[in-house]
Amino acid sequence: MTPVALLVSGAPSIRVQGRRVTKRRQGKPTSLGEALRRYLAKAGLGQRLAQAQVIPDWPRLVGPQIAAVTHPESVAPDGTLFVRVATSAWMNELQLMAPQIMAAVNGRGAGRIKTIRWLLTR
Questions:
Q1: What is the pLDDT of residue 60?
Q2: What are the structural domains of the chain?
Q3: For strand 70-75 and strand 19-22, is the pairing parallel, antiparallel, or unpaired?
Q4: Banded model confidence at residue 42, pLDDT cuts 50, 70, 90
Q5: H-only helix segments in 16-96
Q6: Regarding predicted confidence, which is higher, 1 or 80?
Q7: Which of 41, 77, 93, 96 gives a 20 to 30 Å CA spacing to 25?
Q8: Which residues neighbour 73 within 8 Å (Cβ) at sequence distance 6 or greater?
């Protein structure tokens, strides 16, 4: 049996019995979270992840009163957030409040949500 080695890009390689094996880098190891962030950024998924984070953060972003009558469903790749609303009266109110809600949703990450589509719950 031969030992299994992980190939790390950029690491110097050596040959052992005709097989390429990499030397372990000396230095600080990379955390799993950091490796995942790098992968997501390289794959172009960082923006989508930031957009999707609006859904679990919704109650904190809009407050308990609005969160009680709304339910964020999804975020389209173009930055459209789809939110279900309990009543048509609330839908009208939220449409008027859209600029304030957009500011709260985007916060420091300006532009992650481009528009909000309010959908009446049936």
A1: 93
A2: 48-120 (3.30.300)
A3: unpaired
A4: confident
A5: 32-42, 46-52, 54-62, 64-69, 88-96
A6: 80
A7: 41
A8: 55, 82, 83, 84, 119
What phi and psi values does residue 119 have, to the nearest 5 degrees? -120, 130
Mean pLDDT of 17-22: 67
Read off the pLDDT of residues 75-102 as tens digits, 9 standing for 90 and up. Answer: 998 999 999 999 999 999 999 999 999 9
Spatial separation of the C-alpha atoms in residues 87 and 95, rounded to whole Å = 12
Q: Does 62 or 38 have the greater pLDDT score?
A: 62
d(CA 99, CA 113): 12
- Residue 115 and residue 122: Cα distance in Å, rounded? 22
Identify the burial level of 120 via C-beta atoms within 10 angstroms of its C-beta, where 0-12 means exposed, 13-18 middle and 19 or more buried: exposed
Chain centroid to CA 113: 12
Residue found under tokens 């600029």? 99
- CB of 112 within 8 A of CB of 51? yes
pTM, full prediction? 0.66
